[in-house]
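input
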Amino acid sequence: MSEKELIKQLKNLPIEAQQEAVDFVEFLSIKYLQKVQNEVTMNKKSILESSFRGIWKDRTDLEESTKWIRKLRKSRWFD
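output
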């Protein structure tokens, strides 16, 4: 059914039935939006569970990260 046909059929319904259709569409929207949000929430991992955690733990050049980033920025922006 096309969108035009659906709208035409809705307009032909009595006001009470139109309101019932609106309520049902709102119910479906909420139901499926919550389902999607729940799936997203379930798929989120804590940063502590991430495979990237500790990726640079063995690098000795990053011991003082503030000093390291200043040096990197200076070499890229001021040379």
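quick obs: The mean pLDDT is 83.
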